[in-house]
Specification:
Length: 103
């Protein structure tokens, strides 16, 4: 018997989370359609749940606010630390620049 993995796209997960932290209004465009369980990587699920909670409480979902929320709730280490969050944002910017400036 072969074990099958559920459908996954790690790059898409990273792009969604990075995009939300770069554009805090983005969460409003996806929150009614995207559920935390759609994320394959557990750290991504935790980050998305943090973003949802911030959004529903009327707070920004920028990188600094998400980092502070995860720290306050003892989740920062579990998701991979500040570097994980910074990497999500950085990769999103890099992908955007590649697509936008590609000839």
């Amino acid at each position: 018997m072969i074990d099958k993995l559920p459908p996954q796209n790690i790059e898409a997960e990273e792009a969604i989370l990075g995009g939300i932290m770069l554009d805090p209004e983005a969460i409003g465009r996806v929150s009614d359609r995207l559920i935390p369980e759609a994320f394959y990587i557990s750290a991504h699920k935790d980050i998305y749940q943090a973003v949802q909670r911030l959004h529903y409480s009327g707070k920004s979902t920028d990188l600094l606010t998400v980092t502070a929320w995860l720290t306050d709730h003892d989740l920062l280490v579990r998701i991979g630390g500040r570097n994980k969050l910074a990497t999500l944002v950085d990769r999103t910017v890099s992908r955007f620049n590649f697509v936008f400036f590609r000839v």
